[in-house]
Amino acid sequence: MLSLRSVSKTFGQTPAVRDVDLDFKPHTTTVLIGASGCGKSTLLRLALGLVTPDRGSVLLDEELLDAKSAPLLRRRMGYVIQDGGLFPHLDARSNVGLMAGYLRWEGERTKRRILELARLTRFPEEGLDRFPVQLSGGQRQRVGLMRALLLDPEVLLLDEPLAALDPLVRAELQDGLREIFRDLGKTVVLVTHDLAEAAFFGDRIVLLRDGSVLQSGALRDLIDTPADEYVSRFVRAQRTLHVPGVEVTP
Amino acid sequence: MKLPGRSAGGWFLAAVLGLPGCILSRGDDAARSAAPVIIGSKQFTESVVLGELAASLVRASGTPAEHRSQLGGTQVLWNALLRGEIDCYPEYTGTLEQEILKQKGVRGEAELRRELASQGVVMSRPLGFNDTYALGMKPARARRLGIRSISDLRQHPELRFGFTNEFMDRADGWPGLKARYALPQEDVRGLDHDVAYRGLDADTIDVTDLYSTDADISYYGIRTLQDDLHYFPVYDAVWLIRADLNARAPAAVAALTALEGRIDANAMAAMNGRAKIHRVPEPRVAADFLALNLGLTVVPEEQGPASRILRRTEEHLGLVALSLSAALCVALPLGILAARRPGLGALVLAATGVLQTIPSLALLVFMIPILGIGAPPAVAALFLYSLLPIVRNTHAGLTGIPAPLRESAEALGLSARARLWRVELPLASPSILAGVKTSAVINVGTATLGAVIGAGGYGQPILTGIRLDNVGLILEGAVPAALLAVAVQALFGGIERGVVPLGLRLAHKD
After folding, report:
1. Which three-class secondary structure string do you get for B326-355?
2. Residue B414 near chain A (CB below 8 Å)
3. Which residue of A48, A90, A98 is in closest CB contact with B503?
4. Which fold has domain A2-76+154-248?
5. In this structure, are B329 and B416 located in the same domain?
6. Tens of pLDDT along chain B (510 residues)?
7. Which terminus of chain A faces fewer neighbouring Cβ atoms within 10 Å, N or C?
């Protein structure tokens, strides 16, 4: 489906991504994880063509992503960032329907699609006429997801979508998101720095360090057969909650 | 709205500068025969009175005439005459010999006539008075120091001189005088003519230059010092008339020559006194003179304050609206370009910044050789002034959009053009609008200077008020200009509600 082939990118003097090869299979969820600055967000932006690789290539269904093909290929990928990335001058409905307007959909079709998405993401219908500043953090995130899903893309790229939310809202949205990923059968790439979240979503976890892939596999593989000492340390660093009398494990 | 001006080159440049040429153009050639005779005058009362006399005479001959009063200094009037922006203006033979035709080294009336004819200009016979330069002091101080002639000044190097700016710079002014009399004074400064009289009266200066027909000489009781070395040349007042006017309006030329030899120095000083000290409007002064001396009945064109202010408002709004909308059409794309191409952007911002540092009066005067006098050069200068705030705020508004938002728009698959219109410009709109508002307010204020080069507007009464030391007239221009600036502010408050999206206004309240 989506492939990165020997992709490298350097910003100024700092290499952000070094020679990364990744394939994202249809209908699977892959989680990119690592410490800040490991290049996980840059990988998503490379996949969308927001950043041009110095070397290597990005392919969507064997079609090369370059400056010319990017606008069309991007319509087959949905992108969600922290806090939704909503345009403050547009209300929720217009944020979601921006591309519909650009592609000159009929009004009725746009309206139907937005209502459908609101139900899917459990976003209250009356909130559609509010501006981003008038919405809660969780609602903004839902609108961001609706906007990404409008054109029913095959690929969904999410960059720390839940990082800005408080724990309760976050847990609720995690459940909702996983359900949506499964129901819609999308190819999902999700970036997080939280291993528990990674384990919750990911069919496959890709651990990155300094712009390179350190290990790729299920959580079990990372725990049982760590590729090196850093992987073990990273896994151990995600503490289990210890409360006397109660046992909570990720 | 009235937009005078005739130079074809000027219109061309106006079009190049992006001004809507169709609004400015006047179908000159077709209207030429019916066009009024344009009289010009310099920025001092005697010239304005003479200009009024000329306009009244031409009108009395049955030819429509228009008086563009207080257009500026000698060079502005002379060049306007050569270019055909004016048909006639009062000049002095001394100025012609010493200043305008200095390079040609002409001496005497016959040579002067020949040289002028070769440039397409006809000189009338002298009007009857010699308005030469003189130096003046307060009589008490002159008496105490025993000063009677300019030579006597040599003994008093401590005296403070205050000269009109033109006198300071002219070859036949201070530099030549200083050399001829070997004057030692160091404290010499340039002043406005009218300010100089008040300075003399208030003892902040001791000696100033005068015109020998100045009304103020008797009003302020000033002693004129004898030019014992005969330094100052003769300054006979004459009309300078374009040679081609005779073909277009022979009656007008005949009417103008009727005044030859009819105004002696006393009559001129009396008219200056009425206009300047008794505040009789110049058209009335001219009409009274013509009635008394030539038996002509002229009804002076006197406007009430309301219609006068209305006309100034129209002129002022014309200058502001035209220059600001042209600036908007150019600055907005420039700002977008500057935001898209950082290298080019630095260049654009630097260039518009440099424009802003040129003093506004200088910029207006720079425009005269290219665009002549009147509204076109003023609009062009105001246009250039209005660029920077709009360019800079457009650039700042676009580059200030957070990267995640810019990338979100890109990631959706919108084209660059759609991103600009649907996302980036709306997000930058508060900043852009603030820039336009700044430009508009600066523009309203700076446009008052347009009167200096004959563009009219609220600057006209201010200019006249300064010349006549008439606070009422100054306020007649200054108060409406201030009110207009306030109105512009309010207008933009309204525009902001229409242009800046509701979501952004809500966000800014938080």
Report:
1. HHHHHHHHHHHHHHHCHHHHHHHHHHHHHH
2. yes
3. A90
4. Rossmann fold (3.40.50)
5. yes
6. 333 333 333 333 443 344 433 333 334 443 444 689 999 999 889 999 999 999 999 999 989 999 998 888 898 899 999 999 999 999 999 899 888 998 888 888 889 999 999 999 999 999 999 888 889 999 888 999 999 999 999 999 999 999 988 888 877 789 899 999 999 998 898 888 778 888 888 888 999 998 888 877 777 778 888 888 888 888 899 999 999 999 999 999 999 999 999 998 888 988 998 998 888 889 999 999 999 998 888 777 667 778 888 989 999 999 999 999 999 999 999 999 999 998 888 999 999 888 888 888 888 888 888 888 888 999 999 999 999 999 999 999 999 999 999 999 999 999 999 999 999 999 999 999 999 999 999 999 999 988 888 888 999 899 888 887 788 889 999 999 999 999 998 998 889 888 888 888 887 665
7. C
CATH value at residue B440: 1.10.3720.10
One domain for residues B249 and B220? no
Closest partner residue to B407 (CB to CB) among A50, A90, A101 is: A50
Residue B286 has which token pair? 């001219």
Residues B283 and B181 in one domain: no
CATH number of the domain within which B201 lies: 3.40.190.120
Q: Cα torsion for B80, B86, B92, B95, to the nearest 10°?
A: 0
Can you tell me the ipTM of this complex? 0.90
Domain that holds residue B139: 133-225
Number of Cα atoms under 13 Å in the Cβ half of residue B500: 20
Do residue B148 and residue B103 come from a single domain? no
Whether residue B403 lies within 8 A of chain A, CB to CB, comes out as: no
- B12 falls within a domain: no
Under 8 Å between Cβ of A208 and A192: no
User: B12 and B378 in contact (C-beta within 8 Å)?
Assistant: no
B413 touches chain A (CB under 8 A): yes
User: 0.80 cut: is pTM over it?
Assistant: no
Give the start-to-end residue ranges of the domains of chain A: 2-76+154-248, 89-152
Question: Closest-CA residue in chain A for B499?
Answer: A89
What is the CATH classification number for the domain harbouring B35?
A: 3.40.190.10
The token duo for B16 is: 């190049």
Looking at the fold, whether B431 and B339 belong to one and the same domain comes out as: yes
Nearest Cα residue to B467 out of B120, B162, B196: B196
CA–CA min distance B497, chain A (Å): 13
Q: How many domains does chain B have?
A: 3
Q: Are residues B221 and B246 in the same domain?
A: no
